[in-house]
Amino acid sequence: STETTDLYTTKKLRCEAFCGQNVEDNCHVWWEINGVKVGSQQQGYSVNTTSEVEVSSMRSIVTAILTINTVAMKDLQSKFTCVAMNDQKWIHAVVTLKLRGFMFMGLCVALLLFFLLAAVAVKVFDIDLALHFREVFKYYGRSEDGKVYDAYVVYQMDGVDKEMEEKVNHFVSSVLPTVLEQKCGFRLFIHGRDDLPGEDRMELVEACMRLSRRLIVILTPSSSTCEMSVILIQLGDMGEGGYTHLPPGLQHLVRKSAPLMWQEGRRGSTLPNSSFWKRVRYMMPWPRHSTSFDNQLI
Hints:
Largest sheet: 5 strands, mixed
Helix content: 25-40%
GO biological process, one term: signal transduction
Order of helices and strands: EEEEEEHEEHHHEHEHEEHEH
CATH architecture of the largest domain: 3-Layer(aba) Sandwich
Structural class: alpha/beta
CATH class of the largest domain: Alpha Beta
Number of strands: 13
Shape: rod-shaped
CATH topology of the largest domain: Rossmann fold
Keywords: Disulfide bond, Glycoprotein, Immunoglobulin domain, Membrane, Transmembrane, Transmembrane helix
Number of helices: 8
Radius of gyration: 37 Å
Strand content: 25-35%
Distance between the termini: 55 Å
Protein name: TIR domain-containing protein
Strand order of the largest sheet: 1-8-7-3-4
């Protein structure tokens, strides 16, 4: 048989056995849980056995009451067996438990809410989780692909005013390498810093792009680039026209991947665990170089 119950409540299971006419001494009744007899001192369970003889009929009746102190999930998956035995034969009856309808629905709703909250948490903290697992498995996630640089940084200075030119120079020569190279262990190739005088620019660009895992594009009011795995970083406001001044190829990249907005002077803007740099690091490949800041990134 099956009885209904609620979780974390006390449940009593009653078993009565008719043993015959005035045979009280030769009749035994006990409870088993999954085939194991319940002892008198078993934790979480207790059995109270009584016997009586009806005066009018002289029938011997033995009653065993199993008390479950606190119903748990394991009890819903267990078989409770009442066993009765006398000199002639023994019989048994099996009882299982199930949740009441509203309790079952409540449990389903709770589980649904749990998974929903878990999904929302993963969505909100996906970047933090990805960076955390990178730190944990950083020695397993790296693969030798023949690349030299983690990212190739391109930017354009033509057509920008002096204020924007100073902002670009500061970001490219100071902020970007300080955070990504010194604090996060990436290796960048930055024009004006890593190229040698007299090198053929076109050959250099082609060679560096072949040796780089990512392309970081610094967007200014006048920019152009080519397409590969791209990280778009925007400095300053693009004006009323938005990105319409960009070449068609770069506009296509902007539509595919929204640029990350760099806000100079914002508090914590040079910390590798700030929102901006987390997103940049998330889009970068696995760091190749360990730094003293590895334990402070997440």
